[in-house]
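Suppose a colleague, Dr. K., hands you the sequence of a protein chain of 129 amino acids and asks what its three-dimensional shape might be. Before reaching for any lab equipment, you can write down a predicted structure in token form. Begin with the sequence itself:
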Amino acid sequence: MKKNNNGFSLVELIIVIAIMAVLVGVLAPQFIKYVEQSRRSRDIQTAQEVREAVLADIADNKLSGSGTISAQAGNPTTLGETPLASHTNYKNHSFVATYNAVTGTCSVKVDGFSSDLCTEDGASHYKND
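The predicted structure, expressed as tokens, is then:
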């Protein structure tokens, strides 16, 4: 007698689906955590780019005195548009640069966050927020 074995049994399929469900349940929180960490790192990198652009404008005499700007189109900054934060707690918030052309300094914050993202202390505080 020849046995017809043309596929998987229902029990085998249910076992495979159960194993996949357990793996997804274990790996999903880690994946979400890594995505959030990458958002925070991207925000810190963007803040540093904003700072560099403002310092370049100070060096090119496009900014003078001291003040606070959001890097919007129309401002004399080299940035074309307002960058937005992507970290969950600050999503869609603009980066705000406070500069002093006399001393050649600039700090960049996300509106709603009190620390300068361009400092090591501020960046670590933002990553742990």
